[in-house]
């Protein structure tokens, strides 16, 4: 809250300092209006979905609106705002002084109501027909606070400031800021281990903020443009930790085998914090240049970013270079080429686990400590070329070819990473007749080889004849050994994707205009052995505008989405 | 394997009518229908891959696809007017009534609900 007030004061001070200068003394136009009123809101039955982004309560309340605009020879200033209630406010201030100063500040506050997952599907228990009694394998749920009313108050502050520091070389300074501050409550769900399969729900307090600051300097030296950007981003939460009690590990019916079950787990029979949020800081630097090259224009940039979770010490780094080149091939044809290469690196933390089966009756222990090698480490390279040609005065054709390759260092296996390649092709034909009629049709395809797949597999084979006891550690077969039984590559990503899109807008006369559109997408993955994964999507749209006379204005529209997916469905069978 | 299907339709009509220089009327009707469902899952036979009797197990999962059913209908009516009382003062009023039907309550319980909002005030030109 203190940060929020500080940011509001800073924004207001900057606005007030700039306003007199922006308004100017020689005002050619000025307009101020206020709206004073009130509103009454009444919810019936559940307000959670019908009023998801409305105010959260019933009753009367005052409302105030304000609009101000002024313009002089070379300055403009505009201030707009509306107060709905203390949690729903919008406001914006904008101003310019010639081409030397630009300022924009925006504040938006709203309430987001969220419902409570009743967890009703998490309720099942094994039945033993041989004894006529329920068995010990069960799934249960518990909502600690069933009457909880979840609301999140979200405030966003955005400021943009740009100043011309020097006419010579057109040196410009830009300062941008964005803050998103949220407080309220939401649902938090904790799961116990499989010996009890007990899922619990409780309320989590939200008190978090993310702040982003950016400073940039741009200058022009003849046909050479240079620029630098620095960005700092912070996410932090001041909310108290939420904790849950994790059940004692034992047979959920008889209470037997507590020592054995407990020795296999990292934690049980204790109150523990879960879902702890990180404190993340990210800094980035980017330099860019733009210059003539041959008959065309080249843009290049080089950036470095580093993010760190200040609570865990984990870091990620990325280095990205990009180059674009645009050249006119002839009077009617233009070529645009783009290339980027990015290197991403994540940390390799050491995972220190309690000794497996420490304290078990046979004292056969196993150490599962390991170093978790980052799966983020990779090269990501993208190349594309687009030719845009004006075939006639009304017809424009553009053809795009793209290539993307991702080389993973250590996924799925350390030092044996896989690569994913994607080829993209796109053609777009556009017809335009004056300002009244325009239509375009686009076709795009993507061909992907070896898309990202789960390294472990989706299914589990029957293991009776495969798994062996861990002699001499134990005569038993443990659950973790079943990882060896998993098979079947699975991914949600396609190997083939086709997109067809059509748009038409027309204004036959000054009273009537309409637009039509349709987008059809089809993708599939044919590389998944026995699985046949595919998606269809159709999105039609219609918009009509009709002004029959000076008194009437009519508008109507339709948008639709029809999606169909064919996907594998898996059912978890828990049977020891 | 199974098919998951979702459909969403949005229709709106708005009208603005200015019967006199000092009066403006407006109305909007918006309708949304959203449905989603998973077709019945046909699990492969597992008897030949398991030992012993399976009398306690049910592999048909007839009810499971119903977990994913979504079926909402939403309609919103808005009426508004502006009446110019004087060159500096305009009276505005608008009302919105929205109602949502939840035909397949499950995850969040029954979310059927309605909201009524009426707002009125004076816009003053200073």
Descriptive tags:
heterodimer, A: 576 residues, mainly beta, 23-stranded mixed sheet, two-stranded antiparallel sheet, 2 helices, 5% helix, B: 126 residues, 5-stranded antiparallel sheet
Description:
Chain A has 576 residues and is mostly beta strands. Helices cover 5% and strands 62% of the residues of chain A. Chain A has two helices and 29 strands. In chain A, the strands form four sheets. Chain A has a 23-stranded mixed sheet that branches. Chain A has a two-stranded antiparallel sheet with strand order 12-13. In chain A, strand 9 and strand 10 form a beta hairpin. The radius of gyration of chain A is 31 Å and the shape is globular. The two termini of chain A are 51 Å apart. Chain B has 126 residues and is mainly β. Helices cover 0% and strands 63% of the residues of chain B. Chain B has strands at 2-20, 23-38, 70-86, 89-102, 113-125. Chain B has a five-stranded antiparallel sheet with strand order 1-2-3-4-5, with no helix packed on it. In chain B, a hairpin with a 2-residue loop joins strand 1 and strand 2 (23-38). Strand 29 (552-567) of chain A pairs antiparallel with strand 1 of chain B, so a sheet runs across the interface.
């Amino acid at each position: 809250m203190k940060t929020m007030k500080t940011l509001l004061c800073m924004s207001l001070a900057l606005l007030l300092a700039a306003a007199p200068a922006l308004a100017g003394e020689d005002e050619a136009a000025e307009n101020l209006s206020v709206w004073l009123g009130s509103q009454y809101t009444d919810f019936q039955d559940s307000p959670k979905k019908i009023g998801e982004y409305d105010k959260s309560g019933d009753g009367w309340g005052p409302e105030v609106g304000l609009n101000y605009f002024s313009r002089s020879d070379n300055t403009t200033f505009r201030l707009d705002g509306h107060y709905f209630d203390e949690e729903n406010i919008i406001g914006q201030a904008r101003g310019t002084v010639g081409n030397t100063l630009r300022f924009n500040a925006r504040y938006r506050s709203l309430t987001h109501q969220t419902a409570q997952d009743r967890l009703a599907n998490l309720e099942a228990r094994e039945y033993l027909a041989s004894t006529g009694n329920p068995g010990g394998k069960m799934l249960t749920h518990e909502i600690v606070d069933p009457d909880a009313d979840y609301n999140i108050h979200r405030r966003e502050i955005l400021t943009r400031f740009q100043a011309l520091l020097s006419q010579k070389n057109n040196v410009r300074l830009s300062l941008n800021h964005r803050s998103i501050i949220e407080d309220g409550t939401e649902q938090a769900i904790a799961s116990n281990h499989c010996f009890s399969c007990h899922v619990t729900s409780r309320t989590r307090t939200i008190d978090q903020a993310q702040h982003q600051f950016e400073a940039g300097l741009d200058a022009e030296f003849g046909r050479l443009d240079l620029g630098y950007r620095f960005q700092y981003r912070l996410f932090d939460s001041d909310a108290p930790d939420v904790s849950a009690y994790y059940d004692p590990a034992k047979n959920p019916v008889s209470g037997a085998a507590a020592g054995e079950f407990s020795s296999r787990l990292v934690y049980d029979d204790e109150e523990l914090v879960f879902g702890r949020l990180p404190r993340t800081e990210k800094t980035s630097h980017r330099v860019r240049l733009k210059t003539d090259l041959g008959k065309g224009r080249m843009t290049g940039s080089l950036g470095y970013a580093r993010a760190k979770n200040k609570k865990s010490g984990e870091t990620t780094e990325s280095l990205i270079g990009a180059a674009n080149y645009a050249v006119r091939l002839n009077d009617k044809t233009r070529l645009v080429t783009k290339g980027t290469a990015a290197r991403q690196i994540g940390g390799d933390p050491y995972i220190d686990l309690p000794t497996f089966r420490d304290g078990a009756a046979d004292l056969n222990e196993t150490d599962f400590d390991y170093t978790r090698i980052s799966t983020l480490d990779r090269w990501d390279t993208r190349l594309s070329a687009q030719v845009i040609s004006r075939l006639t005065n009304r017809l424009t054709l553009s053809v795009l070819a793209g290539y993307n390759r991702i080389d993973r260092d250590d996924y799925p296996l350390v030092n044996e990473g896989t690569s994913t390649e994607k080829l993209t092709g796109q053609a777009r034909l556009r017809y335009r007749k004056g300002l009244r009629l325009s239509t375009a049709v686009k076709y795009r395809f993507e061909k992907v080889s070896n898309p990202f797949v789960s390294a472990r597999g989706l299914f589990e084979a029957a293991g009776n004849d495969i798994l062996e006891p861990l002699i001499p550690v134990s005569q038993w077969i443990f659950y973790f050994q079943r990882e060896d039984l998993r098979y079947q590559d699975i991914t949600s990503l396609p190997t083939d994707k086709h997109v067809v899109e059509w748009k038409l807008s027309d204004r036959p006369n000054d009273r009537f205009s309409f637009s039509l559109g349709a987008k059809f997408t089809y993708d599939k993955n044919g590389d998944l052995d026995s699985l046949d994964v595919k998606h269809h999507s159709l999105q039609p749209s219609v918009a009509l505008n009709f002004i029959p006379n000076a008194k009437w204005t009519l508008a109507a529209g339709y948008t639709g989405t029809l999606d169909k997916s064919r996907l594998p469905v898996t059912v978890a069978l828990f049977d020891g | 394997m199974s098919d998951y299907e979702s459909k969403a339709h949005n229709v709106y009509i708005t009208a603005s009518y200015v019967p006199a220089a000092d009066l403006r009327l407006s109305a909007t009707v918006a309708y949304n229908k959203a449905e989603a469902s998973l077709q019945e899952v046909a699990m492969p036979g597992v008897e030949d891959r398991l030992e012993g009797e399976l009398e306690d197990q049910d592999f048909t999962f007839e009810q499971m696809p119903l977990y994913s059913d979504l079926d909402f209908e939403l309609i919103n009516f808005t009426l508004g007017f502006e009446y110019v009382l004087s060159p500096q003062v305009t009276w505005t009023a608008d009302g919105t009534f929205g109602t949502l039907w939840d035909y397949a309550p499950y995850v969040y319980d029954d979310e059927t609900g309605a909201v009524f909002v009426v707002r009125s005030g004076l816009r003053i030109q200073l």
